[in-house]
Amino acid sequence: MRLNTAFLALALAITSVSAAVPHLDHAVHGVRSASGSLVDRLCGTIITPEKKAAAEKDFSLKRVLATAVAANNWPVYINVHFHVVAANTSIEGGYVPQSQVDSQIEILNKDYKNTGVQFRLDNTSRTINADWFENVNPYTSEATLMKETLRRGGPETLNVYTVSFDNGYAAGLLGYATFPSDYEDEPKDDGVVIQYGTLPSGNLYPYNLGRTLTHEVGHWVGLYHTFQGGCDPETGGDEVADTPAQAVPTRGCPTFRPDTCPEQPGFDPIHNYMDYSDDVCMRGFTPGQAARFRDQIRTYRGINV
Ligand SMILES: *[C@@H]1O[C@H](CO)[C@@H](O)[C@H](O)[C@H]1NC(C)=O
Ligand SMILES: *[C@@H]1O[C@H](CO)[C@@H](O)[C@H](O)[C@H]1NC(C)=O
Ligand SMILES: [Zn+2]
């Protein structure tokens, strides 16, 4: 699988490039404190510079420009299939109530307001499978089997899975996603997997306001992390002109905006959905990010935005 291979390749390189990818450290050691509470955001959507360069070359060749601004038919609705995977029918077992699923979709729509894209919950499936619940992460056969069993729709349909990420290499993960350009090679892998406690009113404070799904869907529509490529302009960073370069992911919610790339213009975009700040700290996408993702989903997902 392309995503898994990329994730693994970068993780194995951690000893030599750990300064550039500090968050991967947490992927190795997990991010839960001894008491079990989460101490740092961790997203599993990692892309190597090589894979990113290939994806961007492909995008520049195939790019179809979004047109809806002219057509004036915003918002375009993306159908969502939400898959609750649980160990048993208790909330600790991941069996989140429909009210939490519904309020998660509401948060998603609030966060994507004015981007041209909104989301409509098509169906919620519920599956009791303790193995999937505990062991799904970007490396496992459980993830493959879960998605092959539950996934619905084509490239235009968003499939969201909630699990616990309790075990394995990526224990402590908040979520991970596939990119639009991954769909062609790995259609069944397409979608977003998140920790069930990240839903609004979930138990994963300070990541329980629903912003993990906002962030992971950001990848699903074609955005990179704001700290992608660090300070080096040669890398193309996150391929968005109006998000300042950033050396490292943000932790918590700093009172003063740091400037981790002093040679580049702008302070770190700590309030951006594609950084790693606490949920309460996240406030929006930039116009450049929305413009990029509209082109991404028109090009690779056939969404007529
Ligand atoms: C449900 O699953 C969770 C997570 O594995 C476990 O902590 C809890 O004890 C289980 N509850 C019941 C009633 O089996
Ligand atoms: C909707 O979810 C139910 C389970 O709750 C499932 O049986 C059904 O197949 C799903 N429908 C679609 C269209 O995916
Ligand atoms: Zn991410």
TrEMBL record:
Keyword Hydrolase: yes
InterPro entries the UniProt entry points to: MetalloPept_cat_dom_sf, Peptidase_M43
Residue intervals passing through the bilayer: none
Record GO biological process: proteolysis
Signal peptide start-end: 1-19
Span of domain Peptidase M43 pregnancy-associated plasma-A: 173-296
Keywords: Disulfide bond, Hydrolase, Metal-binding, Metalloprotease, Protease, Signal, Zinc
Keyword presence, Protease: yes
GO molecular function: metal ion binding; metallopeptidase activity
Sequence similarity: Belongs to the peptidase M43B family.
Official protein name in the record: Peptidase M43 pregnancy-associated plasma-A domain-containing protein
Organism encoding this protein: Agrocybe pediades
Upper lineage: Eukaryota, Fungi, Dikarya, Basidiomycota, Agaricomycotina
